[in-house]
Fold this protein.
Amino acid sequence: MNFFKSIYEIIDIPLTNWMAHNGIKLLRWSIALIFIWFGGLKFIPGASPAEVLAGSSIEILTFGLVSASVGLPILAAWEVLIGIGMLLPKYMRFTILLLYVQMVGTFSPIFIMPEIVFNSFPFVLTIEGQYILKNLVVIAAALIIGATVRGGRLTATPD
């Protein structure tokens, strides 16, 4: 039994140390990739699978004052800016603020267009609903990243 415990620790200790050392950076990079990629697609008409949903949400939330053709490039730039900000730790507080403001819009279809989000309320989501709900992971990741802006970090072992 001690043999297996020793092998486990030989593997586990350096692995968890590596995760603690690199986890926040990899969270930032993965969020950056998502926002740059998905935001970038919104610059190209017809390229983003969220184009219609985002455009409709913008028009509803602005009471028709901002059309999808105007709002989508603004949203695209906002999302790409979030992605770039995730790569620049100096501006992390501002980046996380931009992300949370964007998330308000992202989750708005749940309330303003539930027929697009749910096949059967409240449990059966459409693909659009799934696309929206997966952002809970992004929000949680941003919380973890935000907890490190004052120099905090992950540790593999308790203090």
